[in-house]
Amino acid sequence: MRCVCAPVKTSKLQEVASLNPRDLGYSGRKRVTLACAFAMQTPILVLDEPTAGLDATEQAQLARAIQFANGQGKTVLVISHDMDFIAENFERAILLKDGRVILDAPMEDFFAQTQLLESAAITPPQMVRLSLALNFSKPALTVTQFLDTPQKTEAI
């Protein structure tokens, strides 16, 4: 029971721990499934579209759980189309197209490859698109990075 308590607590599932998962809504069932994956104590976690159906609060809980797993030395592999979540929570991304790796790079380098991403139908996060449109020297992955990036402005 001890190894299950941390994922339940991290997922904020204490209040529904005694319920049958079928009695929960979609996001509740999703959080139970994620907590089970984390409770298995495997060295590698593979999460397929983990943010689907989760609201912003639940996504923040997921991000904390992933950080916790990384802190324990676990590898977390996420398959996702949610580029905002990926940019904000991971250091590296791998892009597959037709079952082949076409890009494997740190986040800033990954999102700087706009033509390659477009060819794979991947839309970069909002902050990346905005920072590139404003000709930042490197893409901002988060709002904080965007606001903290010093930029030279031209006199009008």
Q: Helices and strands, in N-to-C order?
A: HHEHEHEEHHHH
Quaternary state of this entry equals single chain
Helix content: 40-55%
Number of DSSP E strands: 4
Q: What does the main sheet amount to?
A: 2 strands, parallel
Shape: elongated
Task: Report the β-strand fraction as a percent range.
Answer: 5-15%
The low-confidence parts are: none
Indicate the mean pLDDT: 84
Within the largest sheet, what's the order of strands?
1-2
Class from secondary-structure proportions: alpha+beta
Rg to the nearest angstrom? 18 Å
Distance between the termini: 65 Å
* Total of helices: 8
Structural features, described:
46% of the residues lie in helices and 15% in strands. It has 156 residues and is an alpha+beta fold. The protein has a domain at 1-80. The strands form two sheets. Strands 1-2 form a two-stranded parallel sheet. Helix 1 (2-10) packs across helix 2 and helix 2 (26-39) packs parallel to helix 3 (56-71). The longest helix is centred in the middle third of the chain and has 16 residues, at 56-71. The N and C termini lie far apart (65 Å). The mean pLDDT is 84.
Any descriptors?
single chain; 156 residues; alpha+beta; two-stranded parallel ribbon; two-stranded antiparallel ribbon; 8 helices; 15% strand; elongated
In short:
With 156 residues, the protein is α+β, with helices and mostly antiparallel strands. The chain has helices at 2-10, 26-39, 56-71, 83-89, 107-112, 114-119, 126-133, 143-148, and strands at residues 44-48, 75-79, 92-97, 100-106. It has eight helices and four strands, in the order H-H-E-H-E-H-E-E-H-H-H-H.
